[in-house]
Amino acid sequence: MKEAFKTIDRIAHDMASSIMAIRFFLNKLLNFDPTAKLEELRDSLRESLRNIKDDAKLNSIIREISESMRSEIQFIEKAAASIQKADDETIERLCAAKRSIDKIKAMADNLKKAGECKEALSCQTSVARIIKGTIEELRPVLGEKNISLDFIYNAEVIVNIDESTINRVISNMIVNASEAMSEGDIAVHLHTHEDVIRIEVVDNGKGILDRIAPKIFKQGFTFGKKDGTGTGLAFCEEAVNSHGGRLAVHSRSKQGSIFAVSLPAKRETPTLDEDSVE
Predict the structure, then answer these.
(1) Which helix or strand (DSSP H or E) is residue 30 part of?
(2) Which of 183, 184, 153, 182 lies closest to 170 in space, CA to CA?
(3) What are the residue boundaries of the structural domains of the chain, listed by start?
(4) Is the pTM of this model over 0.70?
(5) What's the topology of domain 2-115?
(6) 132, CA 20 to 30 Å: which among 18, 32, 51, 102?
(7) Dihedral sign for Cα atoms in the order 41, 43, 44, 48
């Protein structure tokens, strides 16, 4: 149950960014917060993890929460489908909300599997596609803080990974960078060298103090964040390590930071003709 517990805790943590995105994209169109119930379910999940020690009882509650998440997402989808406007901004918001809704659906499925102690399966997938999806979800939200978010790459890479886990790693690193900035630029770089895939999240924020840098990947450590839990970067390091990779940070005070993920490459396809996503 220990590994399942970790998975459930990560899902509870990572629901936050998708809930935030759904709220951001749909509040203005619906004139009400469609994510209130999802927030309640997330709180219930975290409370259950803290307080319930009986595995059978916890599994039962997790299955109930998973089903409730699915029902709530169906409600949000119906509410979004009722929107009659057809201007470009509305269409863009609905498409972005749909991506976040699909992520919550996947989390609900993974939550149910974790409650049944089933292992998540890795599969062959595109690293660039994972990053693009994360960028598309977070870019409008960060834009409200005057933070630009770009993706720069010149090669497609197909590897055998747990897609949802790597998605969360990239999302956590971007959100972590943005929380230390009031405005500025964040760029995600993807490139390969020999048998290694390298994903870098580069920001021009205030950087990390030398005395803080050695502690940032420790479970429970947080600094300078009002609601920080100290789980985001700890999860990133553990997840990257579980894929046979390495997570490192390079930072200079007042000059920004680079969070670099190195993963073993399985197979690389020819360079794409498409340009970087700007």
Answers:
(1) helix 2-30
(2) 153
(3) 2-115, 123-268
(4) no
(5) Four Helix Bundle (Hemerythrin (Met), subunit A) (1.20.120)
(6) 32
(7) positive
